[in-house]
Amino acid sequence: MTDETWSIDKARTVFGVGRNDLHFLDILESGELCIKLQDEQITINEIVQKIKSANGKSPGYVSSFTLRIPQLITYQIKKLRTTFEKVFEELEYDGEFIGIYPVKVNQRSDFVTSVIRSDSEYGLEAGTKAELLLITSVIKKEKHRRIVCNGAKDPDYLRLIRESVEKGFKVAISIESLHEARMVVEHFDPKKTELVFRIKPYLNVEGHWSHSTGRDSKFGLSIHDLYNVVDLLTQAGFTESITTILGHAGSQITDLKSFSRFGQFLTNLYAQLRDMGLTNLENIDFGGGLAIDYTGKHPPDLMYQYARNIVLGIKEMLKESHGKHPFPNIMIESGRGITAPAALVIVEALEVRSVFPAPGGECFSETALTKEEEYLEKISNVTELTDLVDIWNDFHSHFGGMSLAGLGAIFEREMIVGILERATRERLVALGIQSFTSEKQIRSFWHPEHIVIGNFSVFNSIADYVLVQQHFPVVPISNLHVHPETTVRLVDITCDSDGEISHFYLQNTDNVWFTKDKRPLTMPGGMMNDGIPVGILDRLPGSHFVLALVGAYQDAIEMDHNLLGDLPDVELRLREDNTWGITWITGAESIEHLLRDVGYADINVDEDPYMNS
Ligand SMILES: Cc1ncc(COP(=O)(O)O)c(C=O)c1O
């Protein structure tokens, strides 16, 4: 069954707009995508136009840019604290919540500053010397904030930690091996030292980072190491220095029940270590793991369920020690969950290219016309999927290959393929979609036949799309009030064929909704598919797409493939009087800078369009 009527609500469903972590996006009746900050609605188009008029002549102006919204960091920070506090109240939990921001997730100064401005008690995590230097410089006037130093430690890192402690910073050093414990014993004064045991998370979780859990984890102490480390540290007088155990189960963990198991595991260790005399042990640090809802398929209370599972796990395990140990404070080092919503890449569509000739063209020859009619007839009579597959196999065996044919004949063939594919999609709808979602060959008919060239580099702006097949939501910024005409692939301007975004998550609805050309827009049960729906194909050039939830990791891992550097950075802020403003932070990375990075300091880039940015 198909439903041809269209509405803004349907558009919201299809693009996941307003749902879960895209709560700050909405669609106006005019079909424009907008950002909602409190009661203010700001269309992306307004932002694009404002930047163009104010900065169109600035060095480094490019029609695509990254939009930063620090207020969304504040929103997430507050949400995380209030979520835990709510769970504590519900479950009568008597420990404290301690938030720690791991700067590796996004080290940009506007992001780190937003984190610390959002919560006067929030701490920071460093994984390297450079990150520790960054942190101590940012909070040099706020030395009460906790700093957790993770990562493999060499003598220089330890020296930097010692100097930071001497300057009055509140640093906790994580011990990840017996070797590190020995170095700490050798170089630190137990009275001035706070220690964290980083434990390998003995836990099975699904997902890309599952190898960061369990015995094979690259990080932390295994249980047999722990015995030796406790022995060494207690004998060296460090018993009272140990305040925290830490386990990081991996990033983006959507299996929420695993946090309850993880809570039990770490609480068991907490109780055992306290029984062994480490009575200053009072915190459990759960590392990161809080997931962001990139697809829109997760329950709306993902953060609440995460917090609740952790607390339930701890309580369950503490029951067994009958009140002997206090409720541990819960430290959370979420970075993805804090920063992902706060950056969006706004990509200008430069042009649209089509795989097939436009429909409605005339066939050149009588034979081609006869063939087209013959296959159209066959397709319209199909009742079984297998027949459809047979028809296409038959078509390809007659028309496939690269036989020596005139250009006209090849043109004709492409036109016929396009026409038959459209007829096949019509037939597939008539046959009922549920039955063929798993058929790879059938799904190929849904593959977009239009390619949009976007003025950006996937490798620079959203490298995780190619590195770990991370899905990011993509939404066109206008004509969302129109029943989508078709779907497209958004490709970048690098010369790499991996530089394209086509994944689109089909949201779960009872019946399948289709584009006008019969590609699915939703699917019962939800499904990842290829093809970003668009309202009006002809109006795409010059318009923009939003790539959302890119604030975590993407700035840190960007690549300069093809010497395409960073896009300009623009900040959006809602002022206290409810008016909004944008600040041009930096222009696009200069070509001179990119060349210097690869050893060409001597090339004089007179024509560098991004110079002095
Ligand atoms: C020790 C530690 N804490 C926190 C994080 C951040 O986790 P997330 O990506 O879930 O924010 C990481 C990420 O690798 C980590 O290694």
Short description:
The chain is of the alpha/beta class. The protein is built from 18 helices and 23 strands. The mean pLDDT is 92.
Query: How confident overall, as mean pLDDT?
Result: 92
Distinct small molecules bound, one entry per kind: pyridoxal-5'-phosphate
Strand residue percentage: 15-25%
Gyration radius over CA = 28 Å
CATH superfamily of the largest domain: Alanine racemase
Give the biggest beta sheet.
10 strands, mixed
What is the number of helices?
18
From the 3D structure, determine the CATH topology of the largest domain: TIM Barrel
CATH class category of the largest domain: Alpha Beta
Count of the separate structural domains: 3
Structural class designation: alpha/beta
Shape assignment: globular
Low-confidence stretches: none
Total strands:
23
From the N-terminal CA to the C-terminal CA, the straight-line distance is 54 Å
Helix content: 25-40%
Based on the coordinates given, report the CATH architecture of the largest domain: Alpha-Beta Barrel
Structure description:
With 613 residues, the protein is an alpha/beta fold. It has three domains: 8-70 and 343-352 and 449-586, Lyase, Ornithine Decarboxylase, Chain A, domain 1 (Beta Barrel); 91-334, Alpha-Beta Barrel (TIM Barrel), CATH 3.20.20.10; 366-445, no CATH class. The chain has 18 helices and 23 strands. The strands form four sheets. Strands 4, 13, 14, 15, 16, 17, 20, 21, 22 and 23 form a ten-stranded mixed beta sheet that branches. It has an eight-stranded parallel beta barrel with strand order 5-6-7-8-9-10-11-12, surrounded by six helices. Helix 4 (109-118) links the parallel strand 5 (97-102) and strand 6. The chain is globular and about 95 Å long. The mean pLDDT is 92. The site of pyridoxal-5'-phosphate has 15 residues, from helix 11. Pyridoxal-5'-phosphate is lined by residues 102, 105, 125, 150, 248, 251, 287-290, 333-337.
